[in-house]
């Protein structure tokens, strides 16, 4: 290695560490604020390390009577949505992965067209909103689960993975008298764990983070956590001279705690599934 | 030979008989997509009506192209169109440059542990919602006592009202989007870099090419198809400036340059209750987007053989 290359390596590594820190610093700052005492926060002493360490703002956040039910609704919605969405998309992907030939279904290209149109076009916000309310889903958990259950992008990802599985395996299973359901459940699903983990991670993240449907389809306090958070953080931007400033300052720690509780599930599952998704995306994106 | 044929024939008969199972497996996806995508598509006739909720789609007055004419004459919607284009193009430009540069630089890091640690942290913001990040940015960008302005003051600068001043708002939206996505977006480039034949580098080394020359003559040309695909596909997104992000960051102070088509459709439609006008604006956006998407896929297929099905 030449001196120039060593120099490049050195500065490049420093740059990379800096970039990683830039991605982390906003989170660390908010974490420090959530754990600091009110006077320290009010006098802007807190940067990345809590001053006057305490957990009061977390206790206060959880004492809020709407917070825990919202957390529960989010969990229910995420689990229900993951189960339904994964099953529906995998089933369709299994069928479409067989193509239109001898192994597949008649009218294959018609079905493909049907899903592509569904991916590229939609009625827009107002017609969809009117439909969901008209069929009686308003203020039920199904309004949060069903409208987005079919996701053609995930369907394609799973389908491409299914297509890559060796054909001989399923031929052998059919020879042994298995039917499609058995091949799907006992062979395709277990062999597709990397892509299922990837798509599952995307689904969980999307459903946990999604707040907009919660805000238009749910009523009053019966909202998922992300929607509740949205209403908590969207305090109008005020000028420094405002008289309410002191009251707002006191709330900074609580708001920080609420935001971090909202992000917690993502922060917890992310490291576990991280190794899958790079792999999964590459498999899904690269075609033969 | 005959037995093989006989088995194949028998298998064929069995397959045809049980293909009803395949249709049954496809049914849930078909039904859900039909109800939640296709039926609302029928609802776009509202764009050609003066829709009144108590009259419904069948009873509301038919006004033809009036909503669209109104849209092109209404100064706000013209402004909103340019805002959308400005924010989306700035994001596309800075996003692609930052993502590609990061991919090339992280790819040069030889220490495996450092590499994967850095990647873990830079991918993370992608998975946090704009609601959570909105909360975080409101805190650190606060004009009176946010971290960023404290730092600016300490360095002798005037505090900046990042989320309350039109031009700074556009800057903040673009910068925070770059911050959130540069790491995650690099995955597709890293995959392309990993696919380059190592023999090319060995040959170049024998010819006396240093790392810089190798980057210029091997690495970059090898990932041009991937860059082309990423760019063409993102062109189809130029009317999506990021509803989620802007909705979580903006306020009436920055409607001037911060209001985009999607936030406009929301305010006019669901807040002001002007369903027909909002649907017309949304429909206009969908049709332009659809044309862009089809064009982009066609180009991506031509330049890089990219196809989705």
From TrEMBL, chain A:
Compartments annotated for it: namely: Cell membrane
**TM helices/strands, residue ranges:** 78-96, 108-129, 141-162, 183-205, 254-273
Q: Its topology with respect to the membrane?
A: Multi-pass membrane protein
**Record keywords, A-Z:** Cell membrane, Membrane, Transmembrane, Transmembrane helix, Transport
Q: Taking every annotated instance into account, which residue ranges of this chain make up the domain ABC transmembrane type-1?
A: 71-273
Gene3D superfamilies attached here?
MetI-like
Pfam families assigned to the protein according to its UniProt record, in alphabetical order: BPD_transp_1
Similarity remark: Belongs to the binding-protein-dependent transport system permease family.
Write the protein's name.
Carbohydrate ABC transporter permease
Q: What organism does the UniProt record list as the source?
A: Cohnella hashimotonis
């Amino acid at each position: 290695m030449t001196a120039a290359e060593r120099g490049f390596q050195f500065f490049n590594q420093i740059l990379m560490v800096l970039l990683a820190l830039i991605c982390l610093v906003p989170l660390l700052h908010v974490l420090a604020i959530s754990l600091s005492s009110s006077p320290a926060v009010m006098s802007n002493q807190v940067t990345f390390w809590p001053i006057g360490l305490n957990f009061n703002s977390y206790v206060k956040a959880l004492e809020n009577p709407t917070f825990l039910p919202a957390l529960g609704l989010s969990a229910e919605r995420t689990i229900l949505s993951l189960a339904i969405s994964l099953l529906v998309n995998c089933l369709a992907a299994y069928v479409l992965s067989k193509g239109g030939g001898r192994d597949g279904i008649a009218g294959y290209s018609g079905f493909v067209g049907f899903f592509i149109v569904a991916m590229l076009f939609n009625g827009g916000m107002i017609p969809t909103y009117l439909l969901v309310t008209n069929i009686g889903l308003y203020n039920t958990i199904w309004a949060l689960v069903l409208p987005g259950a079919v996701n053609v992008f995930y369907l394609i990802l799973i389908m491409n993975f299914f297509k890559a599985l060796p054909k001989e395996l399923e031929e052998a299973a059919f020879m042994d008298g298995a039917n499609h359901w058995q091949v799907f459940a006992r062979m395709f699903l277990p062999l597709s764990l990397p892509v299922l983990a990837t798509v599952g991670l995307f689904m969980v993240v999307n459903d946990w983070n999604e707040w907009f449907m919660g805000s238009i389809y749910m009523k009053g306090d019966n909202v998922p956590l992300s929607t509740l958070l949205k209403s908590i953080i969207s305090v109008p931007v005020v000028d420094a001279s405002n008289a309410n400033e002191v009251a707002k300052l006191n709330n900074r720690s609580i708001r920080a705690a609420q935001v971090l509780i909202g992000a917690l599930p993502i922060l917890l599952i992310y490291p576990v599934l991280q190794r899958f998704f790079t792999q999964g995306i590459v498999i899904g994106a690269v075609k033969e | 030979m005959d037995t093989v044929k006989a088995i194949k024939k028998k298998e064929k008969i069995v397959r045809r008989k049980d293909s009803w199972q395949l249709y049954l497996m496809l049914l849930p996806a078909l039904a859900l997509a039909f109800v939640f995508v296709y039926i609302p598509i029928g609802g776009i006739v509202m764009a050609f009506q003066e829709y009144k909720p108590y009259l419904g789609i069948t009873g509301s007055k038919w006004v033809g192209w009036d909503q669209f004419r109104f849209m092109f004459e209404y100064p706000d919607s013209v402004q909103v169109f340019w805002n959308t284009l400005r924010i989306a193009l700035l994001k596309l430009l800075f996003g692609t440059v930052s993502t590609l540069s990061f991919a090339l630089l992280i790819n040069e890091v030889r220490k495996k542990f450092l590499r994967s640690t850095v990647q873990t942290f830079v991918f993370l913001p992608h998975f946090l919602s704009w609601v959570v990040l909105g909360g975080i940015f409101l805190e650190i960008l606060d004009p009176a006592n946010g971290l960023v302005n404290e730092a600016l003051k300490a360095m002798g600068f005037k505090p900046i009202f990042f989320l309350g001043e039109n031009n700074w708002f556009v800057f903040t939206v673009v910068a925070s989007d770059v911050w959130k996505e540069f790491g995650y977006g690099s995955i597709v480039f890293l995959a392309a870099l990993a696919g380059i034949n190592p023999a090319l580098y060995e040959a170049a080394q024998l010819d006396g090419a240093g790392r810089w020359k190798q980057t210029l003559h091997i690495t970059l040309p090898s990932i041009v198809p991937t860059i082309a695909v990423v760019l063409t596909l993102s062109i189809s997104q130029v009317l999506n400036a990021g509803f989620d992000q802007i909705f979580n960051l903006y306020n009436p102070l920055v409607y001037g340059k911060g209001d985009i088509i999607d936030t406009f459709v929301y305010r006019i439609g669901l807040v002001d209750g002007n369903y027909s006008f909002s649907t017309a604006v949304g429909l206009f956006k969908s049709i332009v987007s659809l044309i862009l998407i089809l064009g982009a896929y066609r180009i991506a297929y031509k330049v890089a053989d990219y196809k989705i099905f």
